[in-house]
Structure formats: structure tokens, C-alpha cells
Specification:
Layout lengths: L2 E6 L11 H6 L1 H14 L3 H7 L2 H4 L2 H21 L7 E4 L3 H9 L4 H18 L5 E7 L3 H10 L6 E8 L2 E7 H13 L3 E4 L12 H13 L9 E3 L4 E3 L2 H11 L6 H10 L2 E7 L4 H9 L4 E5 L5 H8 L1
Parallel strand pairs: 1-2, 1-9, 2-7, 9-10
Antiparallel strand pairs: 3-5, 3-6, 4-5, 7-8
Helix pairs in contact: 2-5, 2-7, 5-6, 5-7, 6-7, 7-10, 8-9, 10-11
Length: about 300
């Protein structure tokens, strides 16, 4: 029997104007935007729809913005008959949207958690000290070796195992730059990322420890739809495990392609990316080319996806 997974994007997929067509055309979407603003007590929609880009790209705004847009689109899809998924997952910040969809947390709490997570991550490392870079055309084991070779310059670690062809590294700027040079010498392609926070490495431990207190204070429920979490690349349903994995995720690598492979091993043959851009769709296609991958970013995508799934 066919199994479906809904997946949700993380930081890096944002752009000014995302989700506006859903906001304009569907009350289900505009209700989500207004609820997010009530939770945050500031005009998030204005930042999302009008920018400026620098303001949207501030981690403290980016994280609740992507969650809000993704969940607004999901809310429209469910109102039009989108079936319940067999699994949910999200990349980094997207895991909070996945948890919201699985029923583990309410929208009000999810938006606040995303905002606070961004705030603590932004504050953990001073501007200009950290760096992230994507390394392409080298296998993950080779990237791990490169990080070890560059550690005399400081902290540098694998941060995102995005696909068998793409691993993102994060850490202190000099160490990431040295690792990037070694990667090029080994035949890899390096793309420095335009981010202000070196996510998913040990530099984020202080952010995670501060955030852990907020996580402990947030009601998280057991879920009926299994959530495949970044930290373990395995499914979880129980609230204590989910909470612990959300804490560890901040300073540990995102095991994205391993999560995709796990879902395929459980019988998933259709992935639907819900949210801005289609970054995850491309990574899934690189990892498992034989599965069906759909994405919903614009209103024009809705009919086609519902036709396939219903």
C-alpha cells in the first residue's frame, strides 16, 4: 500500500512575498498568519510580505516566518481534502512545522518556540565569528575527514547531511574556510552560505541549553502521526523523546537524507514538500530518484497535488 510523507522546509527557503497568494485567497491561511502575530505580538506578516529582506533574514524572524507560511499552506490543503500522512518530517526548523501538523503542539506554542529558538541561536555566536558552507560532489565520510583535518583552526563539523551528494559544514569562520579549501583540493565544490548563525554544531550548545528551559515549559503531546526527527533519523511518537530530540537537534547534525531513507524503508513512495521553495524536493530526488516527489509553494500547485493524492 502506498505511503505518504509530508515534509517541511527550514531556514534558507525564505523570500519576501512567500505565501501571499494563499493569504489573499484563503481565510484558512490568513487565520494562521493572524494567529502567529497574536502569539508573537508583532507584525510578522508585514515582514514576510514586504520585507525588507535583511529583516526577514534575521534568524529571530526567519524561523517563525517559514513555520507560519508552511502551516498556512498546509491548513488550506487540509480544508480541501488533503489526506492524513503516514509520516511527517522537517529540515531543522521545519521539524517544528512537522510537529504542529502531527498534533504534538498548538500553533501558538509552535510559533513562539520558533521565535525563541531563532533568538537564542542568533545570540549564541557573535556576528562574523561563525560560518556555514555546503560541500558538493564529495561523499559524507570524506567531508567528515575534511572537518577533522581542519580542526587545528577551530571548530568545524558536519551540520546537515542533506543528500549523498551534499553535506553542509558549520563552525568557526577560519576553520570552515580551511575545510572549504581542503574540500576543493579533493575535488569538491564549495558554496558558502549566506547565514549569520553556524547552526547544528557544538557552537550552538549554549543556545540549546537556554532553549531547553522553554521547551520544558511548553506542552508537547504524544503524536498519532509519527514524526521522523533530525537527530535520530528515526520515527518518534512520545512527547519526552520528541522534546529531547528537539533540544539535541540544535547542536547536532541534521540527518536529512538518512531520514528520507528511513521513510522509504518503511514504505513511503510519495513525498510532498509543503512550504516556500522546493529545496527538500531536490534533495529527496538526489537521495531516492525512484520515489514520487511533489511540492506546494504556490496556489497554482494545489489542484495538481490534490489530484494525485485524493
Amino acid at each position: 500500500m502506498r505511503k505518504i510523507a509530508y515534509v517541511f522546509p527550514g531556514q534558507g527557503s525564505q523570500y519576501v512575498g512567500m505565501g501571499y497568494d494563499f493569504y489573499r485567497e484563503f481565510s484558512q491561511a490568513s487565520d494562521v498568519f493572524h494567529s502567529a502575530e497574536t502569539a508573537l505580538r508583532y507584525n510578522l506578516s508585514d515582514i514576510i510580505f514586504r520585507g525588507p529582506e535583511e529583516e526577514l533574514n534575521r534568524t529571530v524572524n526567519t524561523q517563525p516566518a517559514i513555520l507560519t507560511v508552511s502551516y498556512a499552506i498546509y491548513s488550506v490543503l487540509t480544508s480541501l481534502g488533503l489526506p492524513k500522512p503516514d509520516y511527517v518530517a522537517g529540515h531543522s526548523l521545519g521539524e517544528y512545522t512537522a510537529l504542529l501538523v502531527a498534533g504534538g503542539v498548538e500553533l501558538f506554542q509552535a510559533v513562539r518556540l520558533a521565535h525563541l529558538r531563532g533568538k537564542y541561536m542568533q545570540e549564541a555566536v557573535e556576528e562574523g565569528k561563525g560560518m556555514m558552507a555546503a560541500i558538493l560532489k564529495l561523499p559524507p565520510e570524506k567531508v567528515e575527514e575534511i572537518c577533522r583535518l581542519a580542526q587545528d583552526e577551530g571548530i568545524v563539523e558536519p551540520a546537515n547531511y542533506n543528500s549523498p551528494e551534499q553535506t553542509v559544514i558549520a563552525g568557526e569562520k577560519k576553520a570552515v574556510e580551511k575545510a572549504s579549501e581542503i574540500a576543493k583540493q579533493m575535488g569538491g565544490k564549495v558554496i558558502p552560505l549566506k547565514v549569520s548563525v553556524p547552526s547544528h554544531c557544538s557552537l550552538m550548545k549554549s543556545a540549546a541549553d537556554a532553549f531547553r528551559i522553554k521547551l520544558a515549559q511548553t506542552p508537547i503531546q504524544n503524536v498519532s502521526i509519527p514524526i521522523v526527527q533530525n537527530y535520530t533519523a528515526r520515527e518518534h511518537r512520545m512527547a519526552p523523546e520528541i522534546r529531547e530530540n528537539l533540544y539535541r537537534q540544535i547542536f547536532s547534525p541534521v540527518r536529512w537524507y538518512q531520514s528520507v531513507l528511513y521513510m522509504v524503508q518503511q514504505g513511503v513512495d510519495t513525498f510532498v514538500e509543503i512550504g516556500p521553495k522546493n529545496v527538500l524536493s531536490k534533495l529527496i530526488q538526489q537521495t531516492v530518484p525512484h520515489v514520487r516527489v511533489l511540492n506546494v509553494e504556490k496556489v497554482e500547485h494545489v489542484e495538481q497535488v490534490l489530484k494525485v493524492l485524493t
